[in-house]
């Protein structure tokens, strides 16, 4: 299946997620002179596919990349782009503690699997996504904030807010104010599989907070974008399951 950039609202496009490849949605915000990415893809290969699509729609050069949180599938494509990377301050520490500056290679992955068998599934998914570790590097954020931050780009306003949560304590949301789109990353999800404890569940209270913002669209990491009505219905279904 060919994955193409999908238009959502006047300034927002989404490069759709692919669960088979652990590939999250990549948000693309296009203004007359700038392009902002929400997350960088799970690998240089994924990022290059997004880049090819940006050329196809004639988007301006990527000026900013916003990491919704530090997890590899949202950050490992960053080296392909030149834009300024923005994230929560804890994202910098978590990238440093988990991924930055490691001797990434197939043998490093093998060693990690032996030392931490619970992470084997994640490490295998990384290996599949990245294909070749030659020249691979993790890129740390260059601009950080603690609670919130706004970007004003050619008349388009982006509000970045720290929401934290159990999935990853550095999770943020990105609101595209004029388009009424909220990118929520993986913020309300359970912790990653290898860290999950019995009783962990999705954070429905957090979703209620997002719905209270009355957006037209909600874009999460690993699901199709939902309009307000469908997002509210999805929340009810989740509560029913609990
Ligand atoms: Zn995640």
Characterization of the model:
- It is a single chain.
- The strands form 2 sheets. The chain has a 7-stranded mixed β-sheet.
- The chain has a single domain, classed as Metallo-beta-lactamase, Chain A (4-Layer Sandwich).
- The two termini are 34 Å apart.
- It is built from 7 helices and 13 strands.
- Bound molecules: zinc ion (ZN).
- Zinc ion (ZN) binds next to loops.
What's the total count of β strands?
A: 13
Q: Which sequence of SSEs, written as H and E, runs from N to C? A: EEEEHEHEHHHEEEEEHEEH
> What's the architecture in CATH terms?
4-Layer Sandwich
Share of β-strand residues: 15-25%
Which range best describes the helical content: under 10%, 10-25%, 25-40%, 40-55%, 55-70% or over 70%? 25-40%
CATH homologous superfamily heading: Ribonuclease Z/Hydroxyacylglutathione hydrolase-like
Structural category: alpha/beta
Measured on Cα atoms, how large is the radius of gyration? 17 Å
CATH topology: Metallo-beta-lactamase, Chain A
Give a short overview.
The chain has helices at residues 44-56, 72-75, 89-98, 106-115, 120-130, 204-212, 228-241; strands spanning 6-9, 12-15, 26-30, 35-38, 62-66, 84-88, 143-145, 148-153, 156-162, 172-176, 181-185, 217-220, 226-227.
């Amino acid at each position: 299946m060919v994955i193409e950039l999908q238009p959502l609202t006047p300034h927002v496009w989404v490069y759709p997620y692919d669960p088979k490849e652990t590939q999250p949605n990549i948000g693309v915000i296009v203004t007359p002179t700038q392009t902002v990415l929400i997350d960088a893809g799970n690998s240089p290969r994924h990022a290059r596919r997004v880049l090819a699509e940006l050329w196809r729609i004639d988007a301006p050069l990527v000026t900013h990349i916003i990491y919704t949180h530090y997890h590899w599938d949202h950050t490992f494509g960053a080296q392909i782009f030149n834009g300024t990377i923005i994230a929560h301050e804890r994202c910098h520490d978590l990238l440093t503690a988990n991924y930055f500056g490691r001797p990434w290679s197939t043998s490093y992955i093998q060693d990690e699997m032996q030392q931490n068998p619970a992470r084997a599934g994640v490490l295998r998914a990384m290996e599949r996504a990245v294909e070749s570790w030659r020249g691979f590097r993790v890129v740390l954020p260059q601009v950080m904030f603690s609670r919130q931050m706004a970007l004003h780009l050619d008349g388009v306003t982006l509000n970045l807010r720290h929401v934290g949560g159990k999935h990853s304590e550095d999770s943020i949301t990105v609101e595209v104010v004029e388009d009424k789109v909220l990118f929520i990353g993986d913020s309300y999800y359970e912790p990653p599989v290898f860290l999950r404890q019995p009783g962990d569940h999705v954070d429905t209270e957090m979703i209620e907070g997002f719905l209270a913002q009355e957006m037209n669209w909600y874009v999460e990491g690993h699901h199709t974008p939902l309009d307000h009505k469908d997002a509210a219905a999805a929340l009810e279904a989740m509560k029913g399951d609990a």
